Amino acid sequence: MPIRIKKYRFVISLVQYAPEETGVYALWHGDEMIYLGRAAEKNEGIQHCLLEHLQGVRGPCTAKATHYSWEICLLPAVREAEVLREFREVHQREPRCHSGSA
Predict the structure, then answer these.
(1) pLDDT tens across 82-96, in order?
(2) Which of 38, 40, 41, 62 is the most exposed place for a label (fewest CB within 10 A)?
(3) For residues 22 and 41, is the Cβ–Cβ distance under 8 A?
(4) How much is the CA Rg of the chain, to the nearest whole Å?
């Protein structure tokens, strides 16, 4: 099941209110999910990861995202694998900003 949480504009004024908990997050360019990541450490939660992408720390591809969404979960690696598996089944490829596909 894809992340169905509301999408927010990928700007500092909104990212600063993203949750600090662990979970998964998606970066979007318009309606296309370009990256799916997980925040598995409490001190590097969803907000921390999103800020790094926004600032370009994690590469130029994800810094160009227009929107983001997130989902708090106890097992981020498991949820990330589920969402990526579904994405691959539908699109026959990885999200374009994943390693090796950007």
Answers:
(1) 999 999 999 999 999
(2) 41
(3) yes
(4) 12
Give this prediction's pTM. 0.91
Report pLDDT digits (tens) over 40-68: 987 899 999 999 999 999 999 999 999 99
Residues 10, 66: contact at Cβ < 8 Å? yes
Residue 21: which H helix or E strand, with range? Answer: none
Fold classification of 8-91 is GIY-YIG endonuclease (3.40.1440)
98: amino acid identity, one letter: H
16 strand-pairing partners? none
Cα dihedral 88, 90, 96, 102 in deg (nearest 10) = 50
Percent of the chain with pLDDT over 90: 86
> Taking every pair of C-alpha atoms in the chain, what is the biggest distance, in angstroms?
35
- Residue 89 amino acid letter: E
